[in-house]
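Quick one: structure for this chain?
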Amino acid sequence: MGPQVPGVALPMNRAKNRTLLQPPISLKVTGSLIPRRMSRPKGRGPVILLLRKGRVPTRLPGGRRKKVRLSDLEGESIEVTFLSLAQKLSKVGVLSEEVGRSLLESKDQVSELTLLLDSAKLEINDRAEREKRLEEELKEERARLDEERAKLVEEKRKVAELEEALGQAEESARAKEQSFPDDAATWAACHHTEVARSVLTKPEDTMDFFKTMYKEPEGMRMITEIGSYGFQCGQKDERSLLYARLQKRDPSFDPAKMKLPPLYKEEPAPPPLSLCSRLR
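Got it. Here's what it folds into:
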C-alpha cells in the first residue's frame, strides 16, 4: 500500500481489493498529452492516464471514468488544487504523496536545475580540456626529458672516450720521458754533425760542452790526447819557423849548442780517433 496523504483516510475494504502500482509515476503538466501505462488487477487491461491542460481524466479500477476540471476548483490556489487532486488520486491507489508533491515543482526550479546542469557540463568540459592540455604538456615534457637523457648519455660516452684518450696520451708521454735520455744518446751517437752544429754555436756553449765531456773518464782522455796532439803540431810549426830564421842568420846554428829543444823530425802522431784533420 502506498503512503497516504495527510488528512485522507482510505477505506480498508477497498484497499484490500486494490493492487497498488510500484513504482509511483510522476506527472508533469506540459500542455500536451502524456500517456502513462500502469498495471491493473488480473483480468483487466492497463490503466492509462492522460494529463491535458485544463482537466485530468482518469480511469478508475472499477471501470468508472471521473473527470476533474480546474474550473470546478475556482477560488483555490494551484498548490491546493494539485494537493486535492493528488489526494483524490491516492484514494484509488494511482498516485502517492511524493508524486503529488512532485507536481508542485515550479518551472523556476526546473530552470535552475537546467542552469546548474549546463554549468556542470561546462565545468566538466573545461576540466576535460585542462586535463587534455596537461596530458599533452606532460607528453611534450616527457619527450624533452627523453631527448635530454639521450644527449646526456651521448655526452657521457664522449667524456669517457676523451678520458681514455687522455690516459693513453699521458702514458705515452710518460714512456717517452723515461726513454728520452737513451733515445737522445742513441740519436747523438748516430748524428755527430747535427750534435756538433747544435753545441758549437757559441763559445760559452762550446766551453760548457767540453767541461761536461772532461768530467767523464773517456772524455778526459780524448780531450787530453787531442790537446796534446794540437800542442805538438803547433810547437813543431813554431820551432821550424824559428830555427829556419836563426839558421838563415847563422848558418852554423845548432839548437843543441844553444840548449834549445830539438827540431821535430817526424810529424806528431794523431790521436786514435783521427781528429787531427778537424783541428788543423
